[in-house]
Amino acid sequence: MKMLLRGLATALLLIIVLAGAGWLLLQRPDIPYDTLEAKYGYADSRYMDLPGGVRAHYRDVGPRDAPVIVLVHGFAASTHAWDGWVKALSDEYRVVVLDLPGHGLTRTDDAYVVQPDSFENVVDQVTRGLGLTRFTLGGNSMGGEVAWTYAVDHPDRVSRLILVDAAGWPTKGRGGATIFKFMGNPVGRRVLKEIEIRPLMTQALKAAYIDPKLVTPALIDRYVDLARAPGHRTVLLGQRPRRVATAPDLSTIHVPTLVIFGQEDRLIPPADGEKFHKAIPGATLILYPGVGHVPMEQIPDRSAADLKAWLAAHPAKG
Asked: What is the dihedral of CA 228, 230, 232, 233, to 10 degrees?
């Protein structure tokens, strides 16, 4: 009996040691910002120090006297998401793309805490810092939520609105990506903060991009590396309080609005595009068959051409 108990104790100890070793192997440290900026920064990357310990990364390209378009990326993404549109638009428009706190190359200090309006405030501070008074504002996914929220709260500053697979309508959960199931509870968020997220990030990206050829090793590396910037995992997994879309709020938007959705979006129901279209007076809706959550990346040339045609047909007010 003693031998059996001793054997069980030894086996249990071995399991604990192996589990601990496995956990240590899965853990991934932060990557210094200098390393990330050298790898993922642009030749025209710029930085702006903002209140609250934020050092915002942005790009500002195109003719200085041209109409301005400001674009906001989605959850866990960065300014890179807009590369196709920046290239297509910057010959005729001044295009500003920025990284939100906890994303891309934007830095936050150790005391930074995300508030419900934190991301909208960064959009406001960066655009005011650049001397912009009125501009076309666009966003994808979470960035779309930031964009329509900003348009509701700052109607004097937004001249046109572009919502690309925008978030905001009440939902029981996002489909298509296991990583969001982990994020749905405190234990899961704690695990994600400490372990190698590459497999889960890869699955999420495949759900977003639809076409597996677009989910390249370089794309996965960028998402995973930027998530490991100091402080980013705390922000990404902090469950920022969301602004829920309502028809009464959206009905106060009275600027030309373009709603774009991929009909194969696995993260946000394409039916939400119809809801935005119906709730925002005079909005235009474009649905892309066979396209997923990021039309500006999956079909950059086609979506940018459609956007340029819409911009020409809907001059900014004021």
From this structure: 60
